[in-house]
Automatic annotation (TrEMBL):
Pathway: Carbohydrate metabolism; tricarboxylic acid cycle; isocitrate from oxaloacetate: step 2/2. PANTHER family: ACONITATE HYDRATASE B, ACONITATE HYDRATASE, MITOCHONDRIAL. Belongs to the aconitase/IPM isomerase family. SUPFAM superfamilies: Aconitase iron-sulfur domain, LeuD/IlvD-like. This is Aconitate hydratase A. One of its GO terms (molecular function) is 4 iron, 4 sulfur cluster binding. Residues 34-477 form the Aconitase/3-isopropylmalate dehydratase large subunit alpha/beta/alpha domain. InterPro entries: Acnase/IPM_dHydase_lsu_aba_1/3, Acoase/IPM_deHydtase_lsu_aba, Aconitase/3IPM_dehydase_swvl, Aconitase/IPM_isomerase, Aconitase_4Fe-4S_BS, Aconitase_4Fe-4S_dom, Aconitase_dom2, Aconitase_mito-like. Keywords: Iron, Iron-sulfur, Lyase, Metal-binding, Transit peptide, Tricarboxylic acid cycle. It comes from Moheibacter sediminis. The lineage of its organism: Bacteria, Pseudomonadati, Bacteroidota, Flavobacteriia, Flavobacteriales. Its EC number is 4.2.1.3.
């Protein structure tokens, strides 16, 4: 029996009417994504056709999911909203605060000991507000959601950028910041600009060493890290129907790395098999009754170029394994070209670690395919030349894989089985020797490979590939090993070749577990006390940000002009800083410490214009704030790429930053800035980025005329007294400008609730 089955019945009960009405209003056949979007309008049945990439639309998502690192701030905000219970089914998943070091049992107990205050807080808040709680060790949020909550035709938001994983089961699932989650949990409309649509037509069938991971690695190479911004990527074609549900989840999950709003596959036989295998036959039956609405209209499939803003075609039969990296997930290299490119670019070819897991690739199928390679190594007299680590995606996956003997080959190769958690993928990895910052290479099946991401070492060259390729490369110990053509020397001195991987889409005996780690909330949470100690280093109750005073912002100083790639990892690092995710003031001490200063090409060293001395970014920001001087951050292209963490917006806001001015934004980060009452602006002329000098003062001379579709004017005053007038663009609509005026979106929610 599925969770929240009555809610799901309600969604399907309205779908026919809403989809048919939307088709009539739009006046043409609809893609699958459009059907779901129009079926989830906050005001009900469609009355107008929305323009892709232009119209702001109010939606009513069916559910919310939060992981423990982001849930802290999301729920601290929700506690301020004045509600007694969440308006939609919501869950918290404890997967980010568990550090990988020794192995599952020891690491889990260590995390529970170190983070008990946070886990207890999340458990009590969940009980108070009717939120499902998945305890530490239960699994990675997106794998748990796919197994338990995702359903075809549904719409959900999650406080993690890889929420689109649920698109593998035909759900519009979108990563957001915590303030967006508060909107939905408070029963308010959730606003999104109507996405553009990118169609990816898949033909053929995967074979040999190719996997679903290689599909998204190829798409990342085509679209780059910002090519999907503002768009839903919709996969279709005979090739799509040849993929498993978890394989589709992998593809949708890593769509976050191309900046996509989300990615999605239509409901098909593989979806039905997965639903039934995960004890959700009731949803499969409902989906079958609505099958015509859980896919694009036939006219779309017949003439896709007429219905998508961009169309890509990939023949799965011709796909070979890819390795993307280093330092960016869109630098794509086919395995057959790696030897040449590694040599040309001086990439270290000795591989120190091979890591399998993360929310992208930790399913039963993933582990079974990688295990088939590990089993061959044992049978053919091979060991591993690299260290080897595994993170199962959930306790259900781990327990079933162990029952079926899938973990044994990994154990035979002395692999470390880590906790069912994110671990190294998000920097929660206590890697021995990382502090030496030696140049080295690792391969993993994760989604991101930014500098310092996995182990904090800026000289770790990380390459993203499939679990089966990770296993093969860990055995060979070399980045340029091509299992399609190369041989290895076994313990008898013989040359042996690895056969292509084999695996199981689903366990033949079904999934099983002893304790999946789920705790249902109490029926009545009114008597639950949520205790946050005033002297806690981990948790801090929030105080509202001050509203705008209605005057032009004058005399602001440059905090930092960030050079090149500046992701949310650079703005608010994870790793050891995760422990402060519930304490805004403490975590603000990592604000922008990873960003490179344009003027000296150093990190965490900026000029304090009050003293003329150089200091850290957080200290300099605090000095400006103490002096009553607002500050400004300037950035380059795709600023805020990466994780959905709203801390990257809340921290600068807390430290007195009033505006972030960049060449272009990543979608989630721009929204997060707006939600926190900041100015997220772009240079109308991107070349004006070059006019910003180290000692500049910023005057927003016409902010009192802030309005939708109206440029703002910035007076840039240089140290020699000269000035530049610069035009700035923005995407604020009238409602978002009210967020700015109120000081934050949360301030508006509180004000409205107080009036009720």
């Amino acid at each position: 029996m599925a969770f929240d089955i009555e809610m799901i019945k309600g969604v399907y009960g309205l779908m026919n009417e809403r989809v048919n009405k939307a088709r009539q209003i739009v006046g043409r056949p609809l893609t699958y994504s459009e059907k779901i979007l129009y079926a989830h309008l906050f005001d009900g049945v469609a009355t107008e056709a929305f323009k892709r990439g232009e119209s702001y639309v109010d939606f009513a998502p069916d559910r919310v999911a939060m992981q423990d690192a982001t849930a802290q701030m999301a729920l601290l905000q929700f506690m301020q909203a004045g509600k007694t219970k969440t308006a939609v089914p919501s869950t918290v998943h404890c997967d980010h605060l568990i550090q990988a070091k020794v192995g599952a049992k020891t690491d889990l107990q260590d995390a529970i000991h170190k983070s008990s205050e946070v886990f207890n807080f999340l458990e009590s808040v969940s009980n108070k507000y009717g939120i499902g709680f998945w305890e530490p060790g239960a699994g990675i949020i997106h794998q748990v959601v796919l197994e338990n909550y995702a359903f075809p035709g549904g719409m959900m938001i999650g406080t993690d950028s890889h929420t689109p994983n649920a698109g593998g089961l035909g759900m519009v699932a979108i990563g957001v910041g915590g303030a967006d989650a508060v909107d939905v949990m408070a029963g308010m409309a959730w606003e999104l600009k109507m996405p553009k649509l990118i169609g990816v037509k898949l033909t053929g069938k995967l074979n040999g060493w190719a996997s679903a991971k290689d599909v998204i690695l190829e798409v990342a190479g085509i679209l780059t890290v910002k090519g999907g911004t503002g768009a839903i990527v919709e996969y279709f074609g005979e090739g799509a129907e040849n993929l498993s549900a978890t394989g589709k989840g992998t593809i949708c999950n890593m769509g976050a790395e191309i900046g996509a709003t989300t990615s999605i596959f239509a409901y098909d036989d593989a979806s039905e098999r997965y639903l039934r295998a995960t004890d959700r036959a009731d949803i499969a039956d409902l989906a079958n009754h609505n099958r015509e609405h859980l896919r694009s209209d036939e006219e779309v499939y017949a003439n896709p170029e007429q219905y998508y803003d961009q169309l890509i075609e990939i023949n799965l039969s011709e796909l070979e394994p890819r390795l993307n990296g280093p330092f960016t997930p869109d630098l794509m290299t086919p395995v057959s070209k790696m030897k040449e490119l590694a040599s040309a670019n001086d990439w270290p070819t000795t591989v120190e670690w091979g890591l399998i897991g993360s929310c992208t690739n930790s399913s039963y199928e993933d582990l079974s395919r990688a295990a088939s390679i590990a089993r061959q190594a044992v049978d053919k007299g091979l060991g591993t030349k690299s260290s080897f680590g595994i993170n199962p995606g959930s306790e259900q996956v781990r327990y079933t894989a162990e029952r079926d003997g899938i973990l044994k080959p990994f154990n035979d190769l002395d692999a470390v089985i880590f906790t069912n958690a994110c671990g190294p993928c998000i920097g929660q990895w206590d890697r021995e020797g990382a502090e030496k910052e030696e140049k080295n290479t690792i391969v993993h099946s994760f989604n991101r490979n930014f500098k310092k991401r996995a182990d904090g070492n800026p000289n770790t060259y990380a390459f993203v590939t499939s679990p089966e390729m990770v296993a093969a490369i860990a055995i060979a110990g070399r980045l340029d090993f091509n299992p399609l053509t190369d041989t290895l020397t076994n313990d008898k001195g013989e040359q042996v070749k690895l056969d292509p991987p084999t695996g199981f889409e689903l366990p033949s005996k079904g999934f099983s577990y002893e304790d999946n780690g789920y705790q249902a909330p109490v029926e009545d949470g009114s008597n639950v006390i949520v205790d946050v100690k005033p002297d806690s280093e981990r948790l801090q109750l929030l105080e509202g940000f001050k509203p705008w005073n209605g005057q032009n912002i004058m005399g602001a100083k440059l905090l930092i002009k960030a050079y090149g790639k500046c992701t949310t990892d650079h703005i608010s690092m994870a790793g050891p800083w995760l422990r402060f995710r519930g304490h805004l003031d403490n975590i603000s001490n990592n604000t922008l410490i990873g960003a490179v200063n344009e003027f000296n090409q150093e990190t965490n060293k900026v000029k304090n214009q009050i003293t003329g001395e150089y200091g850290t970014v957080p200290d300099t920001a605090r000095a400006y704030k103490a002096a009553g001087v607002p500050s400004v951050v300037v950035g380059d292209q795709n600023y805020g790429e990466g994780s959905s963490r709203e801390h990257a917006a809340m921290q600068p806001r807390h430290l007195g930053v009033v505006a972030v001015i960049v060449r272009s934004f990543a979608r989630i980060h721009e929204t997060n800035l707006k939600k926190q009452g900041m100015l997220g602006l772009t240079f109308a002329n991107e070349a004006d980025y070059d006019k910003v000098q180290e000692d500049d003062t910023f005057n927003f001379v016409d902010l009192t005329e802030f309005a939708p579709d109206r440029q703002l004017t910035l007076e840039l005053v240089h140290a020699d007294g000269s000035k530049d007038l610069i035009k700035l663009n923005h995407t604020y609509n009238a409602a978002q400008i009210e967020w700015f005026k109120a000081g934050s979106a949360l301030n508006l929610i509180k004000a409205k609730e107080a009036q009720n």
